[in-house]
Amino acid sequence: MSHNTFGHLFRVTTFGESHGPALGCVVDGCPPGLPLVAEDIQAELDRRRPGQSRFTTQRREPDAVRILSGVFEDERTGGQRTTGTPIALVIDNVDQRSKDYSDIRDSFRPGHADYTYDAKYGIRDYRGGGRSSARETAARVAAGAIARKVLPGIAIRGAVVQMGPHRVDRDRWDWDEVGRNPLFCPDPVAAAEWERYLDGIRKEGSSVGAVIEIVAEGAPAGWGAPVYAKLDADIAAAFMSINAVKGVEIGDGFATAALRGEENADEMRPGNGDSPVFLSNRAGGILGGISTGQPIVARFAVKPTSSILQSRRTVTRSGEAADIVTRGRHDPCVGIRAVPVGEAMMACVLADHYLRHRGQVGGGER
Ligand SMILES: Cc1cc2nc3c(=O)[nH]c(=O)nc-3n(C[C@H](O)[C@H](O)[C@H](O)COP(=O)(O)O)c2cc1C
What we know:
Layout: E1 5-6, E2 11-16, E3 22-28, H1 38-48, E4 65-67, E5 71-72, E6 81-82, E7 87-92, H2 103-106, H3 114-121, H4 136-150, E8 155-163, E9 166-167, H5 175-178, H6 188-203, E10 210-217, H7 231-240, E11 245-250, H8 261-264, E12 268-269, E13 277-278, E14 286-287, E15 290-291, E16 296-302, E17 312-315, E18 321-324, H9 338-361
Antiparallel strand pairs: 1-2, 2-3, 3-7, 4-7, 5-6, 8-9, 8-10, 10-16, 11-16, 12-13, 14-15, 17-18
Helix pairs in contact: 1-4, 1-9, 4-9, 7-9
């Protein structure tokens, strides 16, 4: 039994551990003929890369990606293109400091996966959290860069909309601002406040959670496969599979429970062509598990980093009571670097559903 693969027609398998020699993925099912060079993937990886600000782990990983297979260039292809065969990507780990993790060899970090990996497998690569480390998400981001190639004309963007208890002011939302501050925050005022707030959290040896919003614009109506591969169900599963994610919302999500029917339903008017115009988008662009053609909007909540410098009570592998302080290099808010990961998962789900839709009902050639 193994579960390191997701997707059906656009199928991603990731491999690797935090302190192993390398990690990577195999993307199977990518259509042939798409222009693809390592730089396309690197640009996305650079947005997730650690050590870029004082608000993320200081582990120095260049995350340089190599494409091992699935692409070809000769005089007829006009640049390097996908061949339709499996695309293998590899990213070397170069800045492991395994001695930082000797404390967690025999004790379990509360809130991390140390106990459950031990309970399940009986053997655990404790260095940097092994396979449970979010180093694995680099491979997802790499796969997501390929998924974006399958989805031309679809813009997938993400932002941190809440850090700890502090939310953005949506009236100040500016997508360009997301790339200007180190917190992926779309609100310049909130970004400045959050920097001060997070500095304090970091200096206290603590951590905070965050909410990330991912928006995909340009997907047509019709993607999603009721009833067991509804688009919202697959997005939720993809987001929940990201490390530290504890909740997912589609559209207005949990807030819709407090609304009345006439407030919640997105009213419709005739549009110019075949498509109607929706007067709101509380549904997050999905009805009945099928995209409406509106922006697809989804959020996920990320818990506070569990590896913190503050002492916590725990147990050892042999069941004795112990206290643990987690040294090593950790993000004070893992939600920040989760933004490109969320975008990548959305891209992979949409690429898969685009291909599945084309397979079942045809059309939709891009
Ligand atoms: C981008 C990213 C970076 C992360 N970095 C850390 C980290 O430095 N330290 C840590 O304890 N957890 C980190 N995590 C979270 C853990 O990987 C996660 O909590 C752990 O695997 C247990 O899984 P669960 O929280 O999903 O139950 C990170 C998560 C993400 C998304």
